[in-house]
Amino acid sequence: MAKLTKKAKVLAQIDRDTLYSFDDALKMLRDNASKKFDETLEVAMNLGVDPRHADQMVRGMVSLPAGTGKTVRVAVFARGDNAEKALAAGADKVGAEDLMEDMQAGNLAYDRVIATPDMMGVVGRLGKVLGPKGLMPNPKLGTVTPNVEQAVKDAKGGQVEFRVEKQGIIHSGLGKLSFSDEDLKRNFAAFTDAIVKAKPAGGKGKYVRKVSLTTTMGPGLKVDLAEVEGA
């Protein structure tokens, strides 16, 4: 009962209409966090774009300086020296036609799929398999590259993909609550800065309209847009 009372007190302090600084929002989310598992700090950004129009799409990659706190499983389509480099960099699975057949059989437990340019003839046959899961290698995202070694290191080291949803919202995890305040703030700054810089040519009016922070089990708190560089 005491735990419920404490949580109720914390929730009572939260005003859903107040604009919090990042530091204040993080403190309140920590106070309300579960003690049973390490929750993830998550950010959501409402943008003034309509992704149904190609010139208003917001998509890319950003490296979170403190990492994500998650284990990222990476599959790489490569042959020869590139295959060896990918394995040495920490790829979980490397192959060519054999990897394609494995994925066609339903083995898709990966967070990132990377390919060298010469392998796209093989990877192209997996469009209907990888596409719906957002795993299709894409040169614009750096997942089709001759430098698979660096691509694997980036994926394992805290690089995350962002893509605006139909409602104009982008969301991402920023790390675990076990991270230090400084590390979470660095990740927040890197992520929001990347979104601001990715403003599409077709966007009209105010670009970043709302930013909120939450945790896996916590409430959503609005963040003052002054915290988002360039907003």
From TrEMBL:
InterPro entries: Ribosom_uL1_bac-type (IPR005878), Ribosomal_uL1 (IPR002143), Ribosomal_uL1-like (IPR023674), Ribosomal_uL1/biogenesis (IPR028364), Ribosomal_uL1_3-a/b-sand (IPR016095), Ribosomal_uL1_CS (IPR023673)
Pfam families: Ribosomal_L1 (PF00687)
Top-level taxonomic group: Bacteria
Entry-linked Gene3D superfamilies: 3.30.190.20, 3.40.50.790
SUPFAM superfamilies according to UniProt: Ribosomal protein L1
Keyword tRNA-binding: yes
Key words, A-Z: Repressor, Ribonucleoprotein, Ribosomal protein, RNA-binding, rRNA-binding, Translation regulation, tRNA-binding
GO CC annotations, alphabetized: ribosome
Keyword Ribosomal protein annotated: yes
Protein role: Protein L1 is also a translational repressor protein, it controls the translation of the L11 operon by binding to its mRNA.
NCBIfam families membership: rplA_bact
Subunit-structure text: Part of the 50S ribosomal subunit.
Similarity comment: family membership: Belongs to the universal ribosomal protein uL1 family.
Protein known as: Large ribosomal subunit protein uL1
Protein's organism: Tsuneonella deserti
